[in-house]
Structure formats: structure tokens, C-alpha cells
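Format notes (please read before filing issues)

Several people have asked whether sequences and C-alpha cells are stored in separate files. They are not. Every record keeps both together, in the order shown below: the sequence lines, then the C-alpha cell lines. Line labels are part of the format and must not be stripped during preprocessing.
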Amino acid sequence: MNPPNQTMVTYFIINGISSVPELQLPIFLLVLLIYIIILGGNMTIITVSCFDRQLRTPMYFFLANLSLVDLSCSTVSLHKIFANFILGDKSVSYLACMVQMHFFASFTFDEFAILAVMSYDRYIAVYNPLLYHTVMTQKVCIWLSIISWISGFFLVLPPTTLVLNFSCYRSHEINHFFCDLVPLMEITCDDIATLQIVIFTVGISLFGLLPFLLTFTPYIFIIISILKIRASSGRRKAFYTCSSHLTVVILLYLIIFLQYFTPKSKRSTESSKLFSMFNTVFIPIVNPLIYSFKNKDMTLAIKRRLKFCKVIA
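Then the structure lines:
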């Protein structure tokens, strides 16, 4: 028999971004517009990177992977907002909630992993350009991509398994716009000490510290290499090549740190929602802007694709 105010749940209620009825339509339209932008920007990168011969390089191969991760992360986290408004049903089954939580965490780590691989790619390109095509072969790129994708899925299995073992919840309402780990921890009536240890271990060492070191260590050598370039034009070109990637990495790590490692006493539900929106909306929009539409090779490739489409039409 369960203690008072504890519930065995078979479904959850997703409260959404706001519970104010008058704001539901504006929120839906805004999120829909944002998702269309995310879909258009990232699908453009994926399509152009795959079909334009001049962009069949390791850098754009990993960029296409990053766009696919961004699109997947946004789709997993935002689709319930659309379903809630269109169907008028805020409920989500227990299994669907667990699947959403797992894949959102998995795609988040995949982004860290791919950014680390892109950092290594830029390191080889700047530090030893003569060996770049010898080191970054097609086979190496494919294997690095596969490892980046599957590592996220398996690394988040331990916390997902522990959440699946929760026996009861104080409420079936999740005050968030999707099933995330932190909101679920806040409403469970089970002991979460073991889960917190696992989150700290996996989150700090494997989820945070390892990708952080793998991402930023190459940049130490990149900066040293850039400073050794005598010509100022060469330094600017090399720095421009890496500055976009570094900007995205810093933004992502800052947002994740504020979202998951802020002390509980200073963290509110609304701030958690805000940081989640940055992670699922802001980054997937910024990535195409920083990496592609300010990149001359990508803009030229997009123009070539548009001309090709006009010729076919």
C-alpha cells in the first residue's frame, strides 16, 4: 500500500511552457515558426553537404552530422508542444515519457561528441595540414561519426535504468514542456541518492569533462599554431576557420552548465524551462547561421543547388 500523496503512474501530464489559456495559441505559433526555421536551416546543411561534390570533405561531413543531431534533439523535445495544442491532450504514456527522456539526453551527448570530433578535425587541418587528407580518411570519418552517435545512447542508459526503477511519484504532472530527467526527479517519492551519484559520475566525467577536454585541448595547440603563422592574413584565415566552432562550443557548454549544474536552491522551474528552450531552440538555429550561412563555401554551394533546382524545374 502506497503512502498518502504517492501515485503509481501509467501516464504523465505535460504542463507545457505556460498554463495560461490565452498564451497557448501564440506559444504554438511561435514554436512552430521556430521549428520550421530549425528544420529548414539544418535540412539545407544536410542536403547541400551530401549532394554538393565540393563540400564532400570531413568538415562538412561532421557538420551534416551536427545538423542531424540538432534537428533530432529539437524534434524529440518540441513535438509534444504541437501534439498538446492540436489534439488538446497533454497526457503522455509512461513508456513514451521514458523514451523521450532517454533520447533527448542521448542526442545532447551526441552533440558534445560530434563537436569534440569537429575540434579534432580542425586541429589536424590547422596543426598539420599536409597530413590532413591522410589522417582524416573517409573510413576514419565514418567510424568517428558512428562512435559519436552510439556513445550517447549507451552512456545515458544507467540513469535511464534507475529512473525506470522508480516505484512511485508524488504527482503525475510534469511542470515542463517535455519529459526531462530533472523534472522527473523532482516529483518522484523514491530515494534519488543513487541516481544523483550516477548523474554526477556520468555527467561530470563522461558527459561533461571528457568531451570538454577532447574539444578544448586541440584548441590550445590550434592557437599556438596560429600564433606561429607569420603572415597576418594567414593568422586571420586560420582563426576564422576555427572561431565559429569555438563560439558554438562555448555557448553549448555554458547553457548546459547553467541548466544542470546550478544549485537546486537557486534553480527554479521557469529557469529550467528557459535553459531547455536555449538548448533545444537557440543552439539548433545558431549552428546553421554560424557554420553555414556565414561560410562562403556553403553559401556558394546553396546557390549552386538553387540554380540546379531551377534548371530541373
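For reference, the curators noted about this record: The chain has a mean pLDDT of 81. Strands lie at 11-14, 91-93, 173-174.
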